[in-house]
Design goal:
alpha/beta, Leucine-rich repeat, LRR (right-handed beta-alpha superhelix), 19 strands, globular
């Protein structure tokens, strides 16, 4: 979302409680817009300026933070320097969630002392994020509040494994950790040993396009967490190798898992020990984790894994699949077997017309189906739109109008979702609606 910010908008907003500019592209056309909050404005509860790419008026930010006694969430952008953070924390010791700005500065004892003292005064702080451009020497300043933290988001922090081990070892009550793969297997071992209350783990790649591993992060780190964290329910894990044995161990260790998303960076990667597909491993996940609601598959997979999913994943609500399967049978197993499925995302799989049309009625019980780079033809999309008038069936193809090519020609993308109001009329020029009434089809 692009948001053009005019400071005049703020003048009448005397009762504004939350200003969240997250995941937005913001153009500030008015200069020091924070100073435009009225002097008697005191109602801010949550302020998120993390996405801003320029400096804000620190004096205006400091005044705003200081006069809002109910401020609970403050997320800063990387232009807020580390030596200013202590002042903000002293003015808002009631904060529950903090996103730091740049966590780097020339290492100075006075800055460290002020920062450590300010963090010590934040008795309610439960969530930390930010940590851009970290200088490791300043990390111990947060140790005084680590034992109270429930959430730690380091997904933008290039902190290396030794410092991460020291940090997570202080966070005995942590429930959620987002981190880059710099944590390595050793860091995940420390996490498993220290954070027994962990519920959610997300490990993101630091170099997803690199040809070779840049850090020693393997399946063993995830196995360790599954063994050491009995309350773990949600996993998103990027890695470069996996084995059926590891997946089976994780499934046995954590049958309480409700969300399991494994992203092996190289498509079609087999079990690195046996060179076999990972069907059996994912089969163990869906068989043992009876309450699984969300699943993402990756690696070398055949139609067999979809048979496992259709047979066992009866509570599954969202499934994401890429570069998997052998034939239409895989899609048929999913649509005919997953009773509670609400959202299905498929990319680069050999699924086509037969399974889609045979299970058309299932789509009316779902929120949406997304297919890209599969084997679905334009003719099948037309038939689906005619057969199921309660669905919006949209063909997305930037190559031009699909009806100028043979109907057997595969389309680029298909988006199907439920509707009670008929086709929408706000599509860009590369989207076509397949309606029951040909007169309603847009091109």
């Amino acid at each position: 979302m692009v948001f053009i910010f005019a400071s005049c908008f703020l003048v009448p907003c005397r009762n504004l409680r939350e200003l969240d500019l997250g995941e937005s592209e913001v153009e500030d056309l008015s200069g020091h817009w924070l100073s435009r909050f009225p002097d008697n404005y005191t109602s801010m509860v949550s302020l998120n300026i993390a996405c801003l790419g320029w400096e804000v008026s620190f004096s205006a930010l400091e005044r705003l933070v200081g006069r809002c006694p109910n401020l609970r969430t403050l997320r800063l952008n990387r232009a807020v320097p580390l030596d200013k953070l202590a002042n903000l924390l002293c003015r808002a010791p009631q904060l529950v969630e903090l996103g730091t700005g740049a966590y780097s500065s020339e290492l100075r004892p006075d800055v460290f002392s002020n920062l450590s003292g300010a963090f010590s005064g934040c008795k309610e702080l439960k969530s930390l994020s930010g940590f851009w451009d970290v200088v490791p020497g300043y990390l111990p300043a947060v140790y005084p509040i680590c034992s109270k933290l429930k959430s730690l988001n380091l997904s933008y922090a290039t902190i290396q494994s030794p410092e991460l081990i020291k940090l997570v070892s202080q966070c005995q009550n942590l429930q959620r950790l987002w981190v880059l793969d710099y944590i390595e297997d050793a860091g995940l071992d420390a996490l498993a040993a220290s954070c027994k209350d962990l519920r959610e783990l997300r490990v993101f790649p630091s170099d997803p396009f690199g040809q070779e591993p840049n850090v020693p992060l393997t399946e063993q780190g995830l196995v360790s967490v599954s063994e050491g964290c009995p309350k773990l329910q949600s996993v998103l894990y990027f890695c470069r190798q996996m084995s059926n044995a590891a997946l089976m161990t994780i499934a046995r260790n954590r049958p309480n898992m409700t969300r399991f998303r494994l992203c092996i960076i190289e498509p079609h990667t087999p079990d690195y020990l046996t060179r076999q597909p990972l069907d059996v491993g994912f089969g163990a996940i869906v068989e043992h984790c009876k309450d699984l609601r969300r699943l993402s598959l990756s690696g070398l997979l055949t139609d067999r894994v979809f048979e496992y999913i259709g047979t066992h994943a009866k509570k599954l609500e969202m499934l994401s699949v890429a570069f998997a399967g052998e034939s239409d049978l895989g899609l048929h197993h999913i649509l005919s077997g997953c009773d509670n499925l609400r959202k299905l995302e498929i990319r680069d799989c050999p699924f086509g017309d037969k399974a889609l049309l045979a299970n058309a009625a299932k789509l009316e019980t779902m929120r949406s189906l997304w297919m890209s780079s599969c084997s679905v033809s334009f003719g099948a999309c037309k038939l689906l739109g005619q057969k199921m008038p309660g669905l919006n069936v949209e063909v997305i193809d930037e190559r031009g109008p699909p009806d100028l090519r043979p109907e057997s020609c595969p389309i680029d993308k298909l988006y199907v979702y439920r509707t009670v109001s008929g086709p929408r009329f706000d599509m860009p020029g590369f989207v076509w609606t397949m309606a029951e009434n040909p007169a309603l089809r847009l091109s």
